Queue: 2 jobs
Job 1
Amino acid sequence: MNKAKLKSIIVRFSPLITVGVFILIWYIAAIAVDIELILPRPALVFKELLALISGKTFWTAVGGTLSRSFTGFAISFALAMILAVAGFAIKPIHRAFSPLVIISRAIPTMSVILLSLIWLTSQTSPILISSLIMFPMFYSDFYSALNNIDKGVIDMAKLYKVGAKDIVTRLYIPNILPSVLDSVRSGISFNVKIVIAAEVLAQTRQSMGISMQISRVMLDTASLLAWTAAAVAISYALELIVELIKRFAVKWRRA
Amino acid sequence: MKDIVLKDVSKSYDGLTVVEGFNLTLEAGKITCLLGVSGVGKTTILNIIGGLAGSQGSVSGVPERISYIFQNPTLLPNMTVEGNLDFVLRSQIKDKEERKKIIAEAIQNVGLSEFAKAYPYQLSAGMAQRVSMARAFVYPSELILMDEPFRGLDVATKARLLEYFLALWQKSKKTVLLVTHNIDEAVLLSDKILVLGGRPARISAEYFLNSDKFARKLSDKDAAEVFGKIYDWFAAVTPKS
């Protein structure tokens, strides 16, 4: 095997190699600690994960967490998109919203979580938390995406008297799509993390958050790590789906 | 097609008068060049004619539909060469098949048939400018406004682009206003060259080139003479630093 071929194999399988190295370090650390309560071995966590997956409770909890994540995500996405478009088209709207966006970005996440726990039920507060935390990120990303469209191209479309519908569907939407999908990809897994954290604090029934909390209370570290692994896998799968959509939808970009 | 006439046109930006009492006639079906150094007000005059900048005075004869060729090809990055032409034609020609035929011919005219399905990032600067040219000529306009369209291109690419431009223009005979600071482009393409100078901008000299521009060379007697006169004029009026 020549050097170039070896290099290409390493590059191709580098994510798997990284995961392998991580598990190896974990295994060595678990042997060194040798206390299951503090750091169980990877095999035990994997066994626990298989046991979780085979039970109905796991899927109910995952379904509950994902439905809250998607609801919060959809609300913040829609709101941010509408306001970014309005702010882009009418600059005073953007100027009026800028301080609100800055403030909402600066509010400590924990304050949002605690306040929403006071105001709402345990089922709905994770949705509000997710929406409030994701909104400023989406708004800034979408507004920048709109502003970064080449002004020359926009002027060209107007000079050639291209119809408004074509300007929106053939110019604006395709040109902001890469940035929007980048934003969605990075936001989607972050959003799952936020919702799980909110579920832990709100003690939301049928959720991954409460399942993790129960594992902690029961001092079942293997189960807690199994839930964590499940959350990581779900987030990774969601990011992968968005990445595949992006590859399909944005063929025109330089590779 | 009608002549485009500017009478007593004035334009100021933030109190700075760029154009004042300016008169100009663009003859229908001819290529007129506004030649001048950077910042003299050439683009301002082009923008006034194109309706991109308001002005005082009278501007008449400007057709409703105008094509543009700028220094930057301003192609949609998300569309292929065909798609970019289709983008400006959709609102003008409703029949899809007819559009397809016209676009294929326009792409062939600029020698890019093999690149019809290519995206802008896959084109060289010269090729992208050829697409911009094809778009300007395929659009059903009577006037083409060109603002430094060959700027930044190497000599060989520019020479090919000038050939493509003349070949396209020969078929359509649209009225063209070329704004440039390059004497060679002006001499090779134009029927009339208006040299702009001063502030506010005024026409300092006017040259007519009657030779066949499809066979014109810079070494031809009349072209070389006009080139020399303009060059000497610029050299004489430019302050020595």
Job 2
Amino acid sequence: MNLINPPINAISNRQILLVDDDLLLHKLLAEYLLGHHYHLHTLPNGEGISNFCQHQQPDIILLDIMMPGEDGIHWLKWLKANHPTIPVMLLSAKKSAQERLQGLEVGADDYLTKPFHPKELLIRMHNIMRHQPVKHIQTIKIGSNVFDPEQEKLERDNTIIKLTAQETSLLRFLCQNAGQILTRDAISHAINGNDYHPLNRSIDMTINRLRKKLGDDAHSPQYLRTIWRKGYRLTLNT
Amino acid sequence: MFTTLTEMLGKEAAQRFLTVAQTQLQQYQYDLQAGLQQQDWHTAAIIAHKLSATAHLYDSSTLPDLLALISSQNTEVLQQANFIDKLNQEFQQITSNIYLFIDDYP
């Protein structure tokens, strides 16, 4: 099989997200990848990743390390915590082995040093996407609910309850830390990648929606409890 | 002219890329010159570092070398009287080539 020019119908829906502040690289890769039937979405920094992934799931994310604000390693950690199935390739002009190792340790699927030939990028992306292992769906039991993070849904009494991407991210984080008190700061960092702002009520509103979907009593919740002046705690089995 | 880029993208896409590059390169030139004149080596190094990712596409052997010197903050060389002139000449040469390349489109 020709790796560089596989049949159009095999890849025409491939969505690539490039997160990099270099507008020339955006244009270069957009032109090159379009010519190979991939669609490139671009972001100039990591702040928009959370919002982007709430609306669509790219087949791969190309993530620059040196960016304004939080660096690529920060966003890689965030992606691995919130969207662990999306492959990530790090891009950087730095050549230090230490940085490469750090990225790979955090879970990057590959690492490409700039400048690179777009053909090399294409081959590496293809290899990652081709070798993506078949994902075993792992479900988590929360009382009488079964949470499926991959499918973004809950199931209770043979009824499927659809979750939004934000609700899924939050519930996944709570499950990963079940039994522990999680501050709003920790939750904001985990699901949005930024600090918690007291005036922003989105976490509390998402918690309220999750309680309803879990069938929890808003006044006396069993699973998702508010810990006064501290944050929230999820109990998996009451 | 721009053989690397043309081989990579084809002529039409190369022209579309260079149309965007024209404006971006002017901004890079301005920012680099300002950084070097103010002896703000760190800022100049960050800008040079970013441009290095695509500098090889303009078929200039000089631009990547000049950017490497700025990236490494080799102040002895950067403070030489003709360094900024050399850099500007290189940008001007590339910009002129881009004009010619874009104009040469039916």
